Automatic annotation (TrEMBL):
<dbReference type="InterPro" id="IPR001129">
    <property type="entry name" value="Membr-assoc_MAPEG"/>
</dbReference>
<dbReference type="Pfam" id="PF01124">
    <property type="entry name" value="MAPEG"/>
</dbReference>
<dbReference type="GO" id="GO:0005783">
    <property type="term" value="C:endoplasmic reticulum"/>
</dbReference>
<keyword id="KW-1133">Transmembrane helix</keyword>
<feature type="transmembrane region" description="Helical">
    <location>
        <begin position="123"/>
        <end position="148"/>
    </location>
</feature>
<dbReference type="GO" id="GO:0004364">
    <property type="term" value="F:glutathione transferase activity"/>
</dbReference>
<dbReference type="GO" id="GO:0005635">
    <property type="term" value="C:nuclear envelope"/>
</dbReference>
<dbReference type="InterPro" id="IPR050997">
    <property type="entry name" value="MAPEG"/>
</dbReference>
<keyword id="KW-0812">Transmembrane</keyword>
<feature type="transmembrane region" description="Helical">
    <location>
        <begin position="78"/>
        <end position="103"/>
    </location>
</feature>
<dbReference type="GO" id="GO:0016020">
    <property type="term" value="C:membrane"/>
</dbReference>
<protein>
    <submittedName>
        <fullName>Microsomal glutathione S-transferase 3</fullName>
    </submittedName>
</protein>
<feature type="transmembrane region" description="Helical">
    <location>
        <begin position="12"/>
        <end position="32"/>
    </location>
</feature>
<dbReference type="InterPro" id="IPR023352">
    <property type="entry name" value="MAPEG-like_dom_sf"/>
</dbReference>
<dbReference type="GO" id="GO:0004602">
    <property type="term" value="F:glutathione peroxidase activity"/>
</dbReference>
<keyword id="KW-0472">Membrane</keyword>
Length: 151
């Protein structure tokens, strides 16, 4: 038995934007691995201890890389779900917001990698938050519209 799924026109952009999140995650994973090796923090230790970061800038940057990656992992389920829900009615908006969020994560990570955690926040971080809010709002609108139209 086969099932046909009809996706809205423009859904290829949604697929590309979702794939961009994978590129971000792989890049962050590589970055964490590089800084783990450089700092000498062995597995299974998740983060460098306070004394290690005080003694080594590499250990501090490792922690920053690890935290940037972890924060992205914490947010990615929200991005995936809201992008797919919003894309049902607004595929170009959803793709644009998801792509902007991915770009914001690159800037967030690069800022964190300075070793000064406050530098993770900037205009791109704000843009990523706006993109996430936009996805959330369009998702609620889409779901509400689907529910109302099927009453």
């Amino acid at each position: 038995m086969s099932t046909t799924i009809i996706v809205p026109q423009g859904f290829q952009y949604v697929a590309a934007s979702l794939l961009s999140t994978v590129v971000v995650l792989v890049g962050q994973n590589i970055t964490v691995s590089r800084w783990r090796k450089r700092s000498g923090i062995k597995y299974p230790q998740l983060y460098a201890e306070k004394a290690e970061t005080a003694a080594s800038k590499d250990a501090l940057v490792f922690n920053c890389a690890q935290r940037a990656h972890q924060n992205t992992l914490e947010n990615i389920p929200i991005i995936y779900l809201t992008t797919l829900l919003a894309a049902v009615k607004f595929p170009i908006v959803a793709a644009s917001a998801c792509g902007l969020w991915s770009l914001s994560r690159i800037a967030y990570t690069r800022g964190y990698l300075t070793g000064v955690p406050a530098k993770r926040v900037g205009i791109f971080h704000v843009a990523g938050s706006v993109a996430m809010l936009g996805l959330l709002l369009t998702s609620f609108y889409t779901v509400g519209d689907l529910v109302v139209s099927n009453l």
